[in-house]
Amino acid sequence: MAFEYIKALHIIFIVTWFAGLFYIVRLFIYQAEAWEKPEQERKILIPQLNLMANRLWYIITWPSAILTLIFGFWVLSYRWGYMQLGFMHAKLAFVFLLYLYHFYCQKIYKDLQNGKSNWTSTQLRVWNEVATVLLFAIVFLIVLKSLISVVWGIVGLFALSLFMMLGIKFYKKVREKKNL
């Protein structure tokens, strides 16, 4: 019975972590766009967006990432035999990439909090989709538990990535027409 509670908590913290990752990059986009606004708007937007990003990052996203890791290892301790299976190695590799993504978001967060905007809003929109691709990979691997599915999953991920890139480009064109 303890396993089910631990697994449920692991899933809950995965969900809150991803919610934080998705929303923090959305805030990064708004912060990058705020730098392009007239000074009067910028004076209002940037402090508010910085505050929102700070609260999201340190109150929700970081704790969720840490608790996901703790409960993930705890769940794995009940199913240690999974470490012998290739799908788990692939899943953990994607989880590792997700933590690298998280750490790079930390760098972007720090830069924006210090008034440095090194990314365009379009680049950040693309960056936001990296978490989506990782989410798909991790969920399909853990649900299907099959390396053959990984091959098809990778093909699907590339197709999904291509579709998202086309969507981002289309959205950019729509926004540019709207601003004319």
TrEMBL record:
A single BP term in Gene Ontology: protoporphyrinogen IX biosynthetic process
This protein's GO CC annotations: plasma membrane
Details of cofactor binding: Binds 1 heme b (iron(II)-protoporphyrin IX) group per subunit.
Intracellular or extracellular location(s): Cell membrane
GO molecular function: metal ion binding; protoporphyrinogen oxidase activity
Catalytic activity field: protoporphyrinogen IX + 3 A = protoporphyrin IX + 3 AH2
InterPro entries: HemJ-like
Keywords: Cell membrane, Heme, Iron, Membrane, Metal-binding, Oxidoreductase, Transmembrane, Transmembrane helix
Top-level taxon in the UniProt lineage: Bacteria
Major enzyme class: oxidoreductase
Record field: transmembrane: 6-29, 56-76, 82-105, 126-144, 150-171
Cofactor: heme b
Residues that bind heme: 10, 91
Coiled coil (residue ranges): none
Pathway stated in the Swiss-Prot or TrEMBL entry: Porphyrin-containing compound metabolism; protoporphyrin-IX biosynthesis; protoporphyrin-IX from protoporphyrinogen-IX: step 1/1
Assembly, per entry: Homodimer.
Family membership noted in the UniProt record: Belongs to the HemJ family.
HAMAP family tied to this protein: HemJ (MF_02239)
Main function: Catalyzes the oxidation of protoporphyrinogen IX to protoporphyrin IX.
Protein name, per record: Protoporphyrinogen IX oxidase
